[in-house]
Prior knowledge:
The structure holds two protein chains of two kinds. Chain A has 24 helices and two strands.
Amino acid sequence: xxxxxxxxxxxxxxLQAVDYIILFAYFAFVVGIGFSLQRxxxxxxxxxxxxxxxxxxVTGLAFLSANLGAQEVLGMAASGAKYGMMTSHFYWVxxxxxxxxxxxxxxxxxxxxxxxxxxxxxxLRFDExxxxxxxxxxxxxxxxxxxxxxxxxxxxxQALLGWDYNLSILACSAIVLVYVLxxxxxxxxxxxxLQFFLIVLGFAPLVWLGLRDVGGWSGLVAKLQEKNPAxxxxxxxxxxxxNPMGVEWFGMVFGLGFVLSFGYWCTDFLVVxxxxxxxxxxxxxxxxxxxxxxKMIFPVLVILPGVIAYALTDTSWCxxxxxxxxxxxxxxxxxxxxDYNMVMPSMLAHYLPSGLLGLGMTALMASFMSGMAxxxxxxxxxxxxxxxxxxxxxxxxxxxxxxxxxxxxxxGIIISIGCAYLAxxxxxxxxxxxxxxxxxxxxxFATFLLxxxxxxxxxxxxxxxxxxxxxxxxxxxxxxxxxxxxxxxKGGWILQQAPYTYRSEMAQNFWMAIVAFVVCFTATVxxxxxxxxxxxxxxxxxxxxxxxxxxxxxxxxxxxxPAVVGTIxxxxxxxxxxxxx
Amino acid sequence: xxIRKPIGQLFLLLGAIxxxxxxxxxxxxxxSITITISLNLVWGSFVTLFGGIMAWLSxxxxx
Lengths: 581, 63
């Protein structure tokens, strides 16, 4: 029996003049926004936190869009083609609950403490060493993420449009550099909102055309039932790991839904920074919830195209050999395996005529560039406030830190370029990012959880808990491996074999996150109890839940209060999970 | 700067470009797709409408 080959000669997109006009119009606008906002950046708080002056609807959409980078647009479509409806877990389990939790319980501390960054909150709550550990690890993570976005973008432009890889990296970096350097966080936020609308307007026609081609929703479901019934369910089949994702329900709920999800949405400064830029406490609390509403619907734009792609691809060997190219098929990689990361670009190329194609490609590029800009703005803030001001040059004028912020922007872009050349080991981008997040974010959420809700947690407990949690993640990674992988960067490097094997890298990453969280949580509790309290109740007021007066509702009508709207959002999320069971 | 202003301006421009392309390009469907309407014209109109709404909102707030 011959193995099926997905017939493809490679994806290429031929942009016409109208498409380039649309693309360059977008570039001109993002750079222009940066220049327009330049005059507003008079202080370091203006540059790093937009002077805490942004309305909630803007910060809310930026909060969502800051996460809407390469990993979302390409990765979700790829995952949709690879895993089907189970991919929705990244939204309905792996995002919405954490966003609501952040809004209702954690933003009062972030915003109320007047911390300028997440690491600074750790300094206020615990001590300097905890902050430094977090700021250094976060800085590394952001430039890695930025580099990944840049690499994927350049690779994509090379593959699709024939643009030179190195030139693409330099050109896109230059555009991001200009608008962040000139406009600071406000420019990044404004461009993220722009990106949000571009993605909605750029991809919606693709979804409509794809659904039309597959026979509508009922036709899609019928095709999936025929090819792989597991693809139409999000939870059925998760009693064991014998499902497309290779993850059982416990790993999904606790690994992704709790540890990784809360670890990212509640502690990652990239997204929290957007909420911190809001003009009031109420606006800051509403920010994640405003972002959660479109987040629930985004699977239609980014996952559904991948599922449609799978449904349309005839994987029988006979059809593949004789594919006349008139229908859509998932492109094949050089080794004949499906190139899932090319699903979204190939769908754009297949369905959209010139004009709309330019809009779709612009949306795609916008998502990459915003992802990079978001990471750079988070990096320059953490570097300037948490590393440079704290350890290298304290007590300088604010204008000096404003200058350093701009310098850090340049350096951050340069480091991102370097990281771009390293980001090529994982076929599916999501897997790599989950690994990075597991190392850094999983233990961190345990620290925040205990810090915000347990006044007995001490600085020594927090710091050593973080260290041990990160070490725990590394050890677990070194002792585990996904089926089919060899010992090395993918795991199993301690013994050059793996005592613990998993059906997929995703399952391995989720369990690594669980281990890291448990290690950090346990170590923090034990060490805190074994060490003296280093802050009094008075010093922890405003930083710990039990010691902080509940924030006033500021005369808000009940229907916009975070707890009420958050509850509605959670109910809707539960409904979606049930409907697509 | 009200962000709705540049958003409105950009999408008015992009919508206009799509509309012009729609008039010039006919049905502009890909060979593999049977469709009798101009996608650029229809969607360009929608994008223009969106841009116009955003631009109007930015002006009405600034007054």
